[in-house]
# Entry
Amino acid sequence: MNVFVGNKLKKLRKSEDLSQEQVANSLRVSQSTYARIERGESSSWASHINTICEVFKISPEDLIKEEDKEENNNLNGTFIINQLSDKVIEQYEARIKELKKVIKDLKRKRDL
# Structure
């Protein structure tokens, strides 16, 4: 797990164009400590997981899930997001319909 997370951290750091020292400073550890984390020689990443996730703008699940599963999850995630978006739109449309009825009833009562 340490090697897996270390490799993932290295990819994330490079994709953000950050140096080991910059990430180490964010984690408040030395550059050599962070280098050991990236090489998989240390499990101290676990005690810094929240800060790591903030630095790279990911969830803890994203940090520890496998790459090939990640690609499938991205496809599934897109599908789920689309489904959720459609559901939210339906709910808002139903709520708008309800509010229009309330407005109509209020106007009718006002005119009495």
Summary: The CA atoms of residues 32 and 62 lie 24 Å apart. The radius of gyration is 24 Å. The chain has a mean pLDDT of 85. The chain has two domains: 2-64, 66-112.
